[in-house]
Amino acid sequence: MTDAEEKRADALFHALADSTRRDILRRVLAGEHSVSALARSYDMSFAAVQKHVAVLERAGLVSKRRSGRESLASGEVEAVRSVASLLGEFESVWRGRISQIDDLLATPE
What we know:
Blueprint: H1 3-16, H2 19-30, E1 33-34, H3 35-39, H4 46-58, E2 62-67, E3 70-75, H5 77-106
Antiparallel strand pairs: 1-3, 2-3
């Protein structure tokens, strides 16, 4: 993995490490939401929700566009797929080790 890919993975997992950000991501993957509408869903300030959306946007998990005075956020499916791909790589390493253990156990002495 290149340094750029490692930094991107760090940004993705940092963004997903917070439950509020994961909830925001779920909502915007289901459909575009204004940031102000998102802010009404949480017991925190509008500025705090904006910061969560900004973290998701920097990680590439959310994109924003302007519509009049509103900022609209949408989920980026390709970024979510890249997270799934990274986790798949980890799972394949783990499955390889389990396979080796199975082979060792099946080998007659």
